[in-house]
Amino acid sequence: MSGKLLRIGFIGGGKMAQAMAKGFISAGLAKGETIIGSCHPSDLASLQAFKDLGAESITENIPVVEKSEVVIVSVKPHIVPIALGDLKNSGIDAGKLFLSVAMGVTTCQLEQLLPKEARVIRVMPNTPALVQSGASVFVKGTAATDNDANITRKLLQSIGTCEEVMEPWMDAVTALSGSGPAYVYIFIEALADGGVKMGLPRDLAYRLAAQTVMGAGKMVRDTKQHPGVLKDDVTSPGGSTATGLHFLEERGLRSAVIGAIEAATERCKEVA
Ligand code: NAD
After folding, report:
1. Element (H, E) at 206
2. Which of 1, 41, 51, 221 is the one with CA 20 to 30 A from 245?
3. Does the structure's ipTM exceed the value 0.95?
4. Average of per-residue pLDDT across 63-86
């Protein structure tokens, strides 16, 4: 890519597309004017959100492919066959890199839906991409090249971390890092509710809870210490943390979280 701005198209301009587009712009990989997004005609809010980024915002999918070097398929999974259906017999040059973020839609299914010259990479990002703290993984389709993988890595690293994985892991990745922010949000809300119950002002409680979750995540990531070791470090004998941990273990926090990842993974398989 050598510093050149990429022309990036989004088929589907909703929450995930907007998070990624904002991240690419903030990271300097694209500008509003090098981005185009298509939405359902009824989705006025997303059409406006793309305009607000300085991007082109339309209601047809073929021009998105025509005008882009990289096309990001970011419609809901059940819409993927409808949105890509327009392309197959349109006669347009689809010899582009297609990244799909659609949950549960495999590289094989994408390759069957797209014209045969398309090169496919399946991605699972998450919405903290909006603040350049996303966790993304990708799987290369059969025709994707090493250069395509490098472009994908560069795009995804501009909005957080990025790792190449094996396709059979994608449902578990979706359950962990794709859905994970939602689980962490309710944990943050619960931490803050606990603080409020014990007399803290709500705004202070949210700030402390969010910073605590972020700091603990950074400790695990940056020190590379086992989370159990870090937990032991903050747990003094007979102290308040040990009492709090006992309560969480009694109420089955670990088991509930493990069960949530298992249930969400199974749900991904059903949706696919
Ligand atoms: P969303 O509902 O916010 O956005 C979907 C977009 O598709 C809307 O802009 C809608 O106008 C557009 N659309 C509908 N029909 C269309 C059509 N025929 N042609 C073109 N555009 C059309 O959904 P989202 O949360 O952004 O999810 C999009 C994809 O991202 C999904 O496949 C989801 O699995 C994946 N994903 C989402 C998250 C997340 O946290 N939201 C995380 C990882 C992956």
Report:
1. helix 202-223
2. 221
3. yes
4. 95
